Amino acid sequence: MKKFFISVVFFVLCTGGAHAQQYLGIGDKLPDSLLQQYKGKSILIDFWGIYCKSCIEAFPHLESLQQKYKDKLQVLLVTKDSPEMVNKLKARSAIVRNVSLPMIVNDKVFSNLFFFRSQPTDIWIDTSGIVRHITEGWHVNEVNIGKFVMGKELTLPLKDERIQDEIVGANVAPTDSTNGLLFLSYLTSYQQGQPAMIGKIWDKSERHQIGIKATNITLNTLFMTAFPNIEQFNNRIILEVKDPTAFQFPKDSTLWDWFIKNYHYCYELRLPPDKAKGLYSYMKEDLQRNFGYSAKVEKRKVKCIVISQTKEASSRLQTKGGAPVLEELDDETKFTLRNQNLNAFLERVKYYNETKPLPLVIDVSYKGNVDMDINCALTDLPRLKEELSAYGLSIHEEMRELNMLVIRN
Fold first, then answer.
1. Pick the CATH number of 2-149 from 1.10.760.10, 3.40.30.10, 3.40.50.720, 2.40.50.140
2. How far apart are CA 308 and CA 361, in angstroms?
3. Tens of pLDDT along 170-205?
Protein backbone atom coordinates (compact mmCIF):
# COMPACT_ATOMS: atom_id res chain seq x y z
CA MET A 1 0.00 0.00 0.00
CA LYS A 2 2.82 2.45 0.78
CA LYS A 3 4.43 1.91 -2.60
CA PHE A 4 1.12 2.50 -4.35
CA PHE A 5 0.50 5.83 -2.64
CA ILE A 6 4.01 7.00 -3.56
CA SER A 7 3.34 6.38 -7.25
CA VAL A 8 0.05 8.28 -7.10
CA VAL A 9 1.73 11.33 -5.53
CA PHE A 10 4.48 11.23 -8.18
CA PHE A 11 1.87 11.29 -10.94
CA VAL A 12 0.12 14.34 -9.52
CA LEU A 13 3.36 16.31 -9.14
CA CYS A 14 4.53 15.49 -12.64
CA THR A 15 1.34 16.06 -14.58
CA GLY A 16 -0.26 18.96 -12.73
CA GLY A 17 -3.92 19.58 -11.97
CA ALA A 18 -5.00 20.56 -15.48
CA HIS A 19 -4.19 17.19 -16.99
CA ALA A 20 -5.77 15.34 -14.07
CA GLN A 21 -9.10 16.91 -15.06
CA GLN A 22 -9.06 15.37 -18.56
CA TYR A 23 -11.46 12.44 -18.31
CA LEU A 24 -10.34 9.18 -19.85
CA GLY A 25 -12.58 6.98 -21.95
CA ILE A 26 -12.47 3.71 -23.85
CA GLY A 27 -9.17 3.32 -25.72
CA ASP A 28 -7.32 5.90 -23.66
CA LYS A 29 -4.09 4.96 -21.92
CA LEU A 30 -3.24 5.62 -18.31
CA PRO A 31 0.19 7.14 -17.58
CA ASP A 32 2.78 4.37 -17.18
CA SER A 33 3.92 5.78 -13.83
CA LEU A 34 0.49 5.47 -12.24
CA LEU A 35 0.23 1.67 -12.05
CA GLN A 36 3.87 0.74 -12.48
CA GLN A 37 3.88 -1.83 -9.68
CA TYR A 38 1.07 -3.76 -11.38
CA LYS A 39 2.75 -3.86 -14.79
CA GLY A 40 1.76 -6.96 -16.76
CA LYS A 41 -1.56 -7.38 -14.95
CA SER A 42 -5.08 -6.41 -15.90
CA ILE A 43 -6.45 -3.77 -13.52
CA LEU A 44 -9.98 -3.36 -12.20
CA ILE A 45 -10.58 -0.02 -10.47
CA ASP A 46 -13.71 -0.23 -8.34
CA PHE A 47 -15.06 3.20 -7.38
CA TRP A 48 -17.12 2.90 -4.20
CA GLY A 49 -18.43 5.05 -1.35
CA ILE A 50 -19.19 4.57 2.32
CA TYR A 51 -22.94 5.05 1.74
CA CYS A 52 -23.07 2.58 -1.16
CA LYS A 53 -24.39 -0.62 0.39
CA SER A 54 -24.12 -2.66 -2.81
CA CYS A 55 -20.49 -1.53 -3.21
CA ILE A 56 -19.56 -2.84 0.22
CA GLU A 57 -21.50 -6.07 -0.21
CA ALA A 58 -19.49 -6.73 -3.39
CA PHE A 59 -16.09 -6.65 -1.64
CA PRO A 60 -16.00 -10.40 -0.81
CA HIS A 61 -16.92 -11.16 -4.44
CA LEU A 62 -14.11 -8.91 -5.68
CA GLU A 63 -11.70 -10.59 -3.27
CA SER A 64 -12.65 -14.02 -4.60
CA LEU A 65 -11.94 -12.84 -8.16
CA GLN A 66 -8.60 -11.43 -7.00
CA GLN A 67 -7.65 -14.75 -5.43
CA LYS A 68 -8.66 -16.77 -8.48
CA TYR A 69 -6.77 -14.57 -10.95
CA LYS A 70 -4.04 -13.26 -8.63
CA ASP A 71 -1.29 -13.67 -11.24
CA LYS A 72 -3.25 -11.84 -13.95
CA LEU A 73 -5.49 -9.33 -12.16
CA GLN A 74 -5.25 -6.53 -9.62
CA VAL A 75 -8.42 -5.12 -8.07
CA LEU A 76 -8.15 -1.63 -6.55
CA LEU A 77 -10.82 -0.18 -4.27
CA VAL A 78 -10.97 3.59 -4.71
CA THR A 79 -13.08 6.11 -2.80
CA LYS A 80 -13.13 9.89 -2.49
CA ASP A 81 -14.27 9.53 1.13
CA SER A 82 -11.86 10.65 3.84
CA PRO A 83 -9.78 8.27 6.01
CA GLU A 84 -11.83 9.34 9.03
CA MET A 85 -15.10 8.39 7.33
CA VAL A 86 -13.73 5.05 6.13
CA ASN A 87 -12.33 4.25 9.59
CA LYS A 88 -15.73 4.92 11.16
CA LEU A 89 -17.23 2.51 8.66
CA LYS A 90 -14.58 -0.10 9.49
CA ALA A 91 -15.55 0.11 13.15
CA ARG A 92 -19.02 -1.19 12.37
CA SER A 93 -18.46 -3.19 9.17
CA ALA A 94 -16.59 -6.48 9.25
CA ILE A 95 -16.48 -6.56 5.45
CA VAL A 96 -14.68 -3.21 5.19
CA ARG A 97 -12.55 -3.96 8.24
CA ASN A 98 -11.32 -7.32 6.90
CA VAL A 99 -11.01 -6.63 3.18
CA SER A 100 -7.47 -7.37 1.98
CA LEU A 101 -7.67 -5.60 -1.39
CA PRO A 102 -5.60 -2.40 -1.82
CA MET A 103 -7.80 0.51 -0.83
CA ILE A 104 -7.20 4.13 -1.82
CA VAL A 105 -9.10 6.66 0.29
CA ASN A 106 -9.42 10.42 -0.06
CA ASP A 107 -8.68 9.85 -3.75
CA LYS A 108 -7.98 12.90 -5.90
CA VAL A 109 -6.22 11.15 -8.79
CA PHE A 110 -8.32 8.36 -10.28
CA SER A 111 -11.54 10.21 -9.48
CA ASN A 112 -10.29 13.09 -11.63
CA LEU A 113 -9.32 10.80 -14.49
CA PHE A 114 -12.74 9.17 -14.84
CA PHE A 115 -16.12 10.84 -14.77
CA PHE A 116 -18.86 9.12 -12.77
CA ARG A 117 -21.89 10.18 -10.77
CA SER A 118 -23.01 6.89 -9.24
CA GLN A 119 -21.29 4.00 -7.52
CA PRO A 120 -20.17 1.36 -8.05
CA THR A 121 -18.41 2.28 -11.27
CA ASP A 122 -15.77 -0.14 -12.54
CA ILE A 123 -12.87 0.67 -14.86
CA TRP A 124 -11.35 -2.25 -16.79
CA ILE A 125 -7.72 -1.63 -17.80
CA ASP A 126 -5.73 -4.14 -19.87
CA THR A 127 -2.10 -5.17 -19.43
CA SER A 128 -0.97 -2.29 -21.66
CA GLY A 129 -2.65 0.28 -19.43
CA ILE A 130 -5.47 0.96 -21.90
CA VAL A 131 -9.04 1.49 -20.71
CA ARG A 132 -11.18 -1.25 -22.28
CA HIS A 133 -14.47 -1.04 -20.39
CA ILE A 134 -16.33 1.29 -18.00
CA THR A 135 -19.29 -0.54 -16.48
CA GLU A 136 -21.84 -0.92 -13.75
CA GLY A 137 -20.84 -3.17 -10.87
CA TRP A 138 -22.97 -6.15 -11.84
CA HIS A 139 -20.86 -6.79 -14.95
CA VAL A 140 -17.91 -7.72 -12.72
CA ASN A 141 -18.51 -11.46 -12.61
CA GLU A 142 -16.33 -14.54 -12.98
CA VAL A 143 -17.22 -15.14 -16.63
CA ASN A 144 -16.44 -11.59 -17.76
CA ILE A 145 -13.29 -11.25 -15.65
CA GLY A 146 -12.07 -14.64 -16.89
CA LYS A 147 -12.42 -13.54 -20.51
CA PHE A 148 -10.85 -10.16 -19.78
CA VAL A 149 -7.68 -11.40 -18.12
CA MET A 150 -7.21 -14.02 -20.87
CA GLY A 151 -7.47 -11.35 -23.54
CA LYS A 152 -10.59 -12.86 -25.08
CA GLU A 153 -13.23 -10.85 -26.91
CA LEU A 154 -15.61 -9.22 -24.45
CA THR A 155 -18.48 -6.84 -25.19
CA LEU A 156 -19.88 -4.89 -22.24
CA PRO A 157 -22.32 -1.94 -22.14
CA LEU A 158 -20.59 1.40 -21.57
CA LYS A 159 -21.48 3.32 -18.43
CA ASP A 160 -20.96 6.93 -19.46
CA GLU A 161 -22.59 9.42 -17.12
CA ARG A 162 -21.09 12.34 -19.03
CA ILE A 163 -23.95 11.97 -21.49
CA GLN A 164 -26.11 15.02 -20.92
CA ASP A 165 -29.87 15.26 -21.28
CA GLU A 166 -30.31 15.16 -25.04
CA ILE A 167 -33.89 13.99 -24.91
CA VAL A 168 -36.67 16.38 -25.85
CA GLY A 169 -37.40 19.07 -23.29
CA ALA A 170 -34.51 18.28 -20.97
CA ASN A 171 -33.09 21.78 -21.19
CA VAL A 172 -36.37 23.65 -21.20
CA ALA A 173 -36.58 26.30 -18.49
CA PRO A 174 -38.85 25.66 -15.48
CA THR A 175 -42.56 26.08 -16.11
CA ASP A 176 -43.58 29.49 -14.86
CA SER A 177 -45.31 32.57 -16.19
CA THR A 178 -42.05 34.21 -17.30
CA ASN A 179 -41.17 31.84 -20.13
CA GLY A 180 -44.63 30.96 -21.44
CA LEU A 181 -44.27 27.19 -21.12
CA LEU A 182 -47.73 25.82 -20.36
CA PHE A 183 -47.12 22.07 -20.35
CA LEU A 184 -44.28 19.59 -20.86
CA SER A 185 -44.47 15.81 -20.94
CA TYR A 186 -42.08 13.38 -22.58
CA LEU A 187 -41.30 9.68 -22.42
CA THR A 188 -38.34 7.85 -23.95
CA SER A 189 -36.83 4.39 -23.89
CA TYR A 190 -33.66 3.58 -21.96
CA GLN A 191 -30.95 6.23 -22.35
CA GLN A 192 -27.47 4.75 -22.08
CA GLY A 193 -25.18 6.57 -19.67
CA GLN A 194 -27.96 8.18 -17.65
CA PRO A 195 -28.13 7.21 -13.97
CA ALA A 196 -31.23 5.44 -12.67
CA MET A 197 -32.99 8.09 -10.61
CA ILE A 198 -36.30 9.80 -9.95
CA GLY A 199 -37.06 13.10 -8.29
CA LYS A 200 -39.36 16.06 -7.93
CA ILE A 201 -39.12 19.37 -9.78
CA TRP A 202 -39.83 22.48 -7.71
CA ASP A 203 -40.77 26.04 -8.59
CA LYS A 204 -38.35 28.91 -8.06
CA SER A 205 -39.40 29.30 -4.43
CA GLU A 206 -38.59 25.60 -3.88
CA ARG A 207 -41.84 25.29 -1.93
CA HIS A 208 -44.19 23.92 -4.58
CA GLN A 209 -43.73 20.81 -6.66
CA ILE A 210 -44.39 21.47 -10.35
CA GLY A 211 -42.97 18.35 -11.94
CA ILE A 212 -41.44 14.90 -11.90
CA LYS A 213 -38.28 13.73 -13.63
CA ALA A 214 -37.15 10.12 -13.94
CA THR A 215 -34.30 8.51 -15.87
CA ASN A 216 -33.87 4.82 -16.62
CA ILE A 217 -36.42 3.42 -14.19
CA THR A 218 -38.85 0.51 -14.31
CA LEU A 219 -42.55 0.52 -15.09
CA ASN A 220 -43.18 -0.53 -11.48
CA THR A 221 -41.48 2.61 -10.22
CA LEU A 222 -43.27 4.85 -12.70
CA PHE A 223 -46.69 3.53 -11.72
CA MET A 224 -45.93 3.61 -8.00
CA THR A 225 -44.74 7.21 -8.31
CA ALA A 226 -48.06 8.20 -9.89
CA PHE A 227 -49.79 7.03 -6.69
CA PRO A 228 -47.80 8.80 -3.93
CA ASN A 229 -50.27 7.92 -1.16
CA ILE A 230 -49.50 4.21 -1.29
CA GLU A 231 -46.38 2.67 0.22
CA GLN A 232 -43.71 2.72 -2.48
CA PHE A 233 -42.76 -0.97 -2.36
CA ASN A 234 -43.03 -3.48 -5.21
CA ASN A 235 -44.81 -5.93 -2.91
CA ARG A 236 -47.72 -3.47 -2.81
CA ILE A 237 -48.36 -4.10 -6.52
CA ILE A 238 -50.81 -6.68 -7.88
CA LEU A 239 -50.37 -7.44 -11.57
CA GLU A 240 -53.47 -8.47 -13.49
CA VAL A 241 -51.85 -8.34 -16.91
CA LYS A 242 -51.61 -10.86 -19.72
CA ASP A 243 -47.81 -10.69 -19.90
CA PRO A 244 -45.92 -9.50 -16.78
CA THR A 245 -42.48 -9.49 -18.46
CA ALA A 246 -42.22 -5.69 -18.52
CA PHE A 247 -42.73 -5.52 -14.74
CA GLN A 248 -40.55 -8.35 -13.48
CA PHE A 249 -36.77 -8.07 -13.26
CA PRO A 250 -35.23 -11.37 -14.47
CA LYS A 251 -33.74 -13.69 -11.86
CA ASP A 252 -31.08 -14.65 -14.39
CA SER A 253 -28.40 -11.93 -14.18
CA THR A 254 -27.32 -12.60 -17.77
CA LEU A 255 -30.66 -11.07 -18.84
CA TRP A 256 -30.34 -7.90 -16.80
CA ASP A 257 -28.85 -5.80 -19.60
CA TRP A 258 -31.56 -6.97 -21.98
CA PHE A 259 -34.29 -6.10 -19.47
CA ILE A 260 -32.82 -2.68 -18.69
CA LYS A 261 -32.52 -1.72 -22.35
CA ASN A 262 -36.03 -2.90 -23.19
CA TYR A 263 -38.03 -2.09 -20.07
CA HIS A 264 -36.46 0.96 -18.46
CA TYR A 265 -37.74 4.42 -19.31
CA CYS A 266 -37.08 8.14 -18.97
CA TYR A 267 -40.02 10.38 -18.18
CA GLU A 268 -40.55 14.03 -17.36
CA LEU A 269 -43.66 16.04 -16.59
CA ARG A 270 -43.79 19.76 -15.82
CA LEU A 271 -46.82 21.96 -15.22
CA PRO A 272 -47.22 25.67 -14.48
CA PRO A 273 -47.73 26.35 -10.74
CA ASP A 274 -51.46 27.06 -11.07
CA LYS A 275 -52.04 23.56 -12.49
CA ALA A 276 -49.52 21.65 -10.35
CA LYS A 277 -52.20 20.23 -8.04
CA GLY A 278 -53.20 17.92 -10.88
CA LEU A 279 -49.64 16.69 -11.44
CA TYR A 280 -50.21 13.05 -10.52
CA SER A 281 -53.49 12.89 -12.43
CA TYR A 282 -51.63 13.99 -15.55
CA MET A 283 -48.96 11.36 -14.86
CA LYS A 284 -51.54 8.58 -14.52
CA GLU A 285 -53.07 9.61 -17.85
CA ASP A 286 -49.64 9.63 -19.51
CA LEU A 287 -48.84 6.13 -18.30
CA GLN A 288 -52.16 4.65 -19.39
CA ARG A 289 -52.03 6.40 -22.76
CA ASN A 290 -48.48 5.28 -23.56
CA PHE A 291 -48.31 1.80 -22.04
CA GLY A 292 -51.90 0.63 -22.26
CA TYR A 293 -52.17 -0.32 -18.58
CA SER A 294 -54.68 1.10 -16.13
CA ALA A 295 -53.84 1.35 -12.46
CA LYS A 296 -55.95 1.88 -9.38
CA VAL A 297 -55.53 1.64 -5.60
CA GLU A 298 -57.89 -1.03 -4.28
CA LYS A 299 -58.52 -2.72 -0.96
CA ARG A 300 -57.39 -6.32 -1.33
CA LYS A 301 -57.10 -9.13 1.19
CA VAL A 302 -53.54 -10.40 0.83
CA LYS A 303 -51.10 -12.56 2.76
CA CYS A 304 -48.73 -10.36 4.79
CA ILE A 305 -45.85 -10.59 7.20
CA VAL A 306 -47.08 -8.91 10.39
CA ILE A 307 -45.01 -7.61 13.29
CA SER A 308 -47.26 -7.34 16.35
CA GLN A 309 -46.86 -7.15 20.11
CA THR A 310 -47.84 -9.58 22.85
CA LYS A 311 -49.17 -8.76 26.31
CA GLU A 312 -45.63 -8.77 27.71
CA ALA A 313 -44.32 -6.23 25.19
CA SER A 314 -44.73 -3.03 27.20
CA SER A 315 -42.78 -4.30 30.21
CA ARG A 316 -40.05 -5.89 28.09
CA LEU A 317 -39.58 -2.94 25.74
CA GLN A 318 -39.46 -0.15 28.31
CA THR A 319 -36.13 1.70 28.13
CA LYS A 320 -34.00 2.28 31.20
CA GLY A 321 -33.23 5.75 29.89
CA GLY A 322 -29.78 7.23 29.55
CA ALA A 323 -27.96 8.55 26.51
CA PRO A 324 -29.45 7.39 23.18
CA VAL A 325 -27.28 4.76 21.46
CA LEU A 326 -27.68 3.12 18.06
CA GLU A 327 -24.82 0.88 16.97
CA GLU A 328 -24.64 -1.36 13.93
CA LEU A 329 -21.89 -3.94 13.96
CA ASP A 330 -20.73 -6.69 11.65
CA ASP A 331 -22.35 -5.40 8.49
CA GLU A 332 -25.84 -4.94 9.81
CA THR A 333 -26.06 -8.33 11.49
CA LYS A 334 -25.92 -6.90 15.00
CA PHE A 335 -27.82 -3.89 16.34
CA THR A 336 -27.59 -2.28 19.76
CA LEU A 337 -30.38 0.14 20.67
CA ARG A 338 -30.48 2.13 23.87
CA ASN A 339 -33.26 4.65 24.48
CA GLN A 340 -34.22 4.51 20.79
CA ASN A 341 -37.61 4.93 19.13
CA LEU A 342 -39.14 1.51 18.44
CA ASN A 343 -41.28 2.59 15.52
CA ALA A 344 -38.30 4.07 13.67
CA PHE A 345 -36.45 0.77 14.02
CA LEU A 346 -39.43 -1.28 12.83
CA GLU A 347 -39.87 1.02 9.83
CA ARG A 348 -36.29 0.23 9.01
CA VAL A 349 -37.10 -3.47 9.14
CA LYS A 350 -39.92 -2.83 6.68
CA TYR A 351 -37.60 -0.91 4.35
CA TYR A 352 -34.97 -3.66 4.38
CA ASN A 353 -37.62 -6.21 3.40
CA GLU A 354 -39.20 -4.22 0.58
CA THR A 355 -38.08 -6.81 -2.00
CA LYS A 356 -39.78 -9.68 -0.17
CA PRO A 357 -42.83 -11.03 -2.04
CA LEU A 358 -45.16 -10.40 0.91
CA PRO A 359 -45.91 -6.92 2.28
CA LEU A 360 -44.66 -6.27 5.81
CA VAL A 361 -47.19 -4.71 8.18
CA ILE A 362 -46.31 -3.14 11.53
CA ASP A 363 -49.12 -3.55 14.05
CA VAL A 364 -47.48 -2.37 17.27
CA SER A 365 -49.21 0.10 19.60
CA TYR A 366 -46.18 0.72 21.85
CA LYS A 367 -44.86 4.20 21.05
CA GLY A 368 -42.06 4.64 23.58
CA ASN A 369 -38.33 4.23 23.37
CA VAL A 370 -36.66 0.85 23.83
CA ASP A 371 -33.45 -0.95 24.76
CA MET A 372 -32.79 -3.86 22.37
CA ASP A 373 -29.98 -6.11 21.19
CA ILE A 374 -30.63 -7.70 17.79
CA ASN A 375 -28.10 -10.28 16.61
CA CYS A 376 -29.13 -10.97 13.04
CA ALA A 377 -29.65 -9.30 9.69
CA LEU A 378 -32.96 -7.47 9.43
CA THR A 379 -33.74 -9.42 6.25
CA ASP A 380 -33.39 -12.78 8.02
CA LEU A 381 -36.98 -12.91 9.22
CA PRO A 382 -36.87 -16.38 10.88
CA ARG A 383 -33.90 -15.26 13.00
CA LEU A 384 -35.40 -11.83 13.57
CA LYS A 385 -38.57 -13.50 14.83
CA GLU A 386 -36.51 -15.27 17.51
CA GLU A 387 -34.69 -12.07 18.45
CA LEU A 388 -37.83 -9.95 18.74
CA SER A 389 -39.72 -12.58 20.77
CA ALA A 390 -37.50 -11.74 23.75
CA TYR A 391 -39.07 -8.27 23.74
CA GLY A 392 -42.67 -9.39 23.41
CA LEU A 393 -42.85 -8.86 19.65
CA SER A 394 -44.09 -11.44 17.16
CA ILE A 395 -43.53 -12.01 13.44
CA HIS A 396 -46.10 -14.13 11.66
CA GLU A 397 -48.03 -14.46 8.42
CA GLU A 398 -51.70 -13.61 8.20
CA MET A 399 -54.29 -12.30 5.76
CA ARG A 400 -54.84 -8.55 5.94
CA GLU A 401 -56.85 -6.08 3.91
CA LEU A 402 -54.40 -3.55 2.48
CA ASN A 403 -54.35 -0.78 -0.04
CA MET A 404 -52.73 -2.34 -3.10
CA LEU A 405 -51.86 -0.85 -6.47
CA VAL A 406 -53.62 -3.02 -9.04
CA ILE A 407 -52.26 -2.78 -12.58
CA ARG A 408 -54.27 -4.37 -15.37
CA ASN A 409 -54.80 -4.36 -19.10
1. 3.40.30.10
2. 9
3. 444 444 444 566 789 999 999 877 778 888 888 877
